[in-house]
Design a protein that fits this description.
With 93 residues, this protein is mainly beta. It contains one helix and six strands, in the order E-E-E-E-E-E-H. Strand 1 and strand 2 (18-25) form a beta hairpin.
């Protein structure tokens, strides 16, 4: 795997317990930067507005919402939804 960035969050698992999660994603300046919700991502790209980024952690797949490079939200998604979004964002192989 190439360089990536990470977001650190506490997530509620299906059994009601909470666990720290490192969500890895490939967006912005990818050099293993570590972020939290509300942080601005370091970027070399000029895209502005709302951006959807996909990420993965130990327990779940995630949809990451960026607004003008600020991490605004992280949503747990199913494997099927991840695959659908990946195909929509990047095309199919």
């Amino acid at each position: 795997m190439g360089a990536f960035n990470s977001i650190f969050l506490t997530v509620a698992k299906n059994d009601g317990s909470h666990v720290g999660e490192e969500i890895q994603f490939h967006w912005g300046h990818k050099w293993q930067h570590q972020y939290r919700l509300g942080d601005r991502i370091r970027s070399e790209e000029g895209q502005q507005g709302t951006i959807t980024v996909l990420g993965g952690g130990r327990f779940y797949d995630y949809k990451i919402i960026l607004e003008d490079w600020v991490i605004k939200g992280v949503i747990i998604i199913s494997d099927q939804k991840y695959d659908e979004l990946e195909a929509k964002l990047f095309g199919t192989w």
